[in-house]
Amino acid sequence: MRFLVFGDPEGKVRYGEVARLANKFLGKGDWIIFMGDYFSNQLTAYKYFRQGRLFPESSVFRDLYKRFKVVLVFGNKDLQSRFFDLHERRERFHENLILVEDFHGKVPGEINLFFLNGSNLTNVDISRRAKRLVRRIGTSIEKYRKKRGVQSLRLVDLPKEEVNRIRRGYAFEFKLIYDYPYLTNFDFLKDLRERDFDILLTHTPPLMKGSELVMGNYPDLALYKEVRGGVCPARREGKKVKKGNVGDERVLKFVKRTRCKLVICGHIHEASGVAYLKDKLVINPGSKIAFLNRKKILPFTLIETDQDLTRFRILLRNWSGTYEKEV
């Protein structure tokens, strides 16, 4: 059984690139996994959903679901189809097209998959100001959630005057997170009792500091640079560029409590690599958008394993080269 995994497409990945790799490495019934953030913002998906189009993301997978199982993880820049009353039709579309649009969910089958969608501010959480802004947003959302008597509320659902109040004094940080339907507070994980699944698909990587590196980079290792008002992701390495593990500690604790054997993540574009969290293998394939100006290459990870997920053969291709290892 084989899994061909691609990081955040961000509008830069084309169907032909995916199809060529799938035809080269996969057989009928194998898996293709996309790790969310299909476009650089929500406007593209919004336009297509308004037109009644079920799958804006099909620009990268098109008819591949007819031969392979295609899995769609949702990132922090993706739009839920339920806002356009399309979610039931999407869920019934085809048995080989697997998605969960909620913040988390389990997909039982021959392999039990568990989804964690969305992200926290892993690419900017080294900024104290960004952390303060997140707390500010969270307090306001909770206030209006109770006021309206609803179970969930997003930043984009708040009144305009409240959004403007939150934004005041945090213009730079606000640009990075506003209008993200999947800005996720992972505090709920401490109460989540789900343990028994085989593979965790999470857009947000767990914190990987101190883990055992297998090849490539640590799956949450970000390049960033300091700018006025905080930090931002760096396009390339350089003298002023810093590195840091920016995975989520709450996701890490959840992973450690589960029985899963494989964790696949994304979100940090340049963190293409494989590492161990004790007995759990963690993989980030990386994204084409990382280092785009240096090498126009589509990174991917090919995972070959048995039905019990006891042994793995991994092929990783990124901007630094191609790695292959059996673990």
List the helices and strands and how they pair.
Layout: E1 2-6, H1 15-25, E2 31-34, H2 43-50, H3 58-61, E3 69-72, H4 87-91, E4 97-99, E5 104-107, E6 113-116, H5 128-148, H6 160-167, H7 171-177, E7 199-202, E8 212-216, E9 221-227, E10 230-233, E11 242-245, H8 249-257, E12 262-265, E13 273-277, E14 280-284, E15 300-305, E16 312-318, E17 321-326
Parallel strand pairs: 1-2, 2-3, 3-4, 6-7, 7-12, 12-14
Antiparallel strand pairs: 1-15, 5-6, 8-13, 9-10, 9-11, 13-14, 15-16, 16-17
Distance between the termini: 15 Å
Helix and strand sequence: EHEHHEHEEEHHHEEEEEHEEEEEE
Q: Which range does the strand content fall in? A: 15-25%
What is the total tally of β strands? 17
Q: Which residues form runs of ≥5 with pLDDT under 50?
A: none
* SSE-based structural type: alpha/beta
What spatial order of strands do you see in the largest sheet? 4-3-2-1-15-16-17
From the spread of the alpha carbons, the general shape counts as globular
Report on the biggest sheet: 7 strands, mixed
- The helix content is 10-25%
Q: Mean of the pLDDT scores?
A: 88
